[in-house]
């Protein structure tokens, strides 16, 4: 038995998930370019000041969007850590 209401919600979730994947792919393309630039100019893989500002900015955006800022920070931290790992590998 199919529940049309539930199916509609799930279709919306699937569309949002697809958009998130595409947005993350675009973000990582740009961060890869940043990593290459840092590697060729001798800049360090991490920029703690930038990271701190980004976390604060996204926590604020999360609050405005009524999204848990703690969740948002954990999600962003995961992404930042992955980017730094990629940048460090480029410099090795």
TrEMBL record:
Segments forming domain Chorismate mutase: 1-91
Q: Which InterPro entries match?
A: Chorismate_II_sf, Chorismate_mutase-related, CM_bact, CM_dom_sf, CM_II_prokaryot
Q: What's a single GO MF annotation on this record?
A: chorismate mutase activity
Q: Which SUPFAM superfamilies match?
A: Chorismate mutase II (SSF48600)
Query: Which keywords has UniProt assigned to this entry?
Result: Isomerase
Q: Transmembrane helix: is it a keyword of this entry?
A: no
On the tree of life, the source organism's domain of life is Bacteria
The name of this protein is chorismate mutase
């Amino acid at each position: 038995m199919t529940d049309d209401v539930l199916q509609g919600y799930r279709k919306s979730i699937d569309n949002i998930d697809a958009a998130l994947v595409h947005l993350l792919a675009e973000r990582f393309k740009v961060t890869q370019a940043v990593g290459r630039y840092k590697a060729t100019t001798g800049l360090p893989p991490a920029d703690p000041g930038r990271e701190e500002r980004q976390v604060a900015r996204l926590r604020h955006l999360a609050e405005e969007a009524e999204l848990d800022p703690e969740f948002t920070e954990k999600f962003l931290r995961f992404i930042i850590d992955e980017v730094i790992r990629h940048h460090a590998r480029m410099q090795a």
